[in-house]
Amino acid sequence: MVGTLLLNGCAQTGPAIAKNTGLQVSPHGRYSGLYQASLTQATTAAKEALQEIGMSYDAVVTKTPTQVLIQGVTLKHQVVQVTLDAHNAQQTEVSIHSGYYGNKRLSLQFQRLLAEDLRAGEKSR
What we know:
This protein has helices at residues 39-52, 104-123; strands at residues 5-6, 16-17, 24-25, 31-35, 55-63, 67-74, 79-88, 91-98. The chain has 125 residues and is an alpha+beta fold. Strands 1, 2, 3, 4, 5, 6, 7 and 8 form an 8-stranded antiparallel beta sheet that branches. A hairpin with a 6-residue loop joins β2 and β3. The chain is globular, with a radius of gyration of 13 Å. It starts with a strand and ends with a helix.
C-alpha cells in the first residue's frame, strides 16, 4: 500500500522515534520515515509536500538510481534538505532536515503531507 508509514523499532542505542509517528529522529534533528512507495512516487510526493509547506525554491541536486537529494529554501528562509533512498522497488526512506538541530514542526508537517500525498496518489491509480 503506497503511503503507509512503516513503524520501525530501534535499539536503546539507536535513533529516537518521534512519539506516535513511527518516524526516526537523529540527534541532529533529521526526521526519517520508510514508505511503501517507489523512489519515483516518493520523489513526486516529496516535491508536492515541499510546496505545501512553503518551499519557495527547490532543486534536485543529486539523482542516482537509488537516491534523490532535494535542497531548497522556505518562504521563511529556512534551508531544507530532503533525502530519498530506495530500499527496494517499492520501499523508500524519506528524511528531512532543516537547520543545525532540525525543525520539529516543519519536519513533522512535511512527513504528514508526504504520507497524505502518497495516499492520494494511490487512490487516483
